Known about the structure:
Blueprint: H1 3-19, E1 23-25, E2 36-40, H2 47-52, E3 62-64, H3 73-79, E4 83-85, H4 92-103, E5 107-110, H5 128-135, E6 140-146, H6 148-152, E7 165-168, H7 175-181, H8 186-206
Parallel strand pairs: 1-7, 2-5, 2-6, 3-4
Antiparallel strand pairs: 6-7
Amino acid sequence: MNFVYYCGWRFFRTFYRVYFRAEWFNAERVPAAGPVILAANHASIIDPPLVGTGLERGISYLARESIFRFPGVGWILRHWDAVPVDRDGGGAKGLKAILDRLLAGGGIILFPEGTRTLDGKLQPARSGIGLTVIKSQAPVVPVRVFGTYAAYGRDMIFPRPCKIMAKYGRPMDFAAQRAEAKTCSKARLKEIYQEVADEIMVQLAKLEPFEDREIFP
C-alpha cells in the first residue's frame, strides 16, 4: 500500500467497524502477493471498500472513467491504482487495463453479476468476468458480502447502521478451461466464458454466514 491508499484503507476499515460493526472472515485465503481476482456479489456501493479493507494488501477498484476528470478525486483514484472503465464497465480499453494490473502482480475486485442487485438476492453471472479470468493467469477468490443491501441499498439516501460482513472463499484455478480456450472454436469460447462465470457464482453462493452470527438480510 502507498500512503494515500493506506489512509483510505484505514478510514474505511475504521468507519465500517464503528458504524456497520463490520467483520471479515477467512481473508488469509487471499494470496498476500501476486495477481488475484476477487469476485464478489454486488448489493451496495459500500461493497468494494468492504471487500478491499479486509485485506492487508493493495487492491485495485474499477471506477468510471468520467470520475477521473474531477480535481482531487482523480488524484486519489490514481493513487489508489483504480482502473478507469466506461459506463458499462466493459470495452477493450477497460479489459486491457484490468489485465495489465493483473500482469503486474496486482489484485482487482470484479462483480460477476455486473450490477447491483435490486432485491438483495444473488443475480445470474454475466460472461464478462469469465473472459477476464480466461485471458489472465490469476487465481479467483470468491467473496460474499452480507448485510450491505439492508445497510445501503440502491434506493436509500443515507446508510443505516446495519451489521455487514465479508467472507472470502478458497482460490479457484480454472487451468483446464484456460487450456481448452487456447484451441477451441469461438462458439465454444463463449460457452467457456459463461461456464467460468457460473462456477464462480456457484462457489460464491456456498459461502454462508457462520451459524453463531445473526441472520443477515
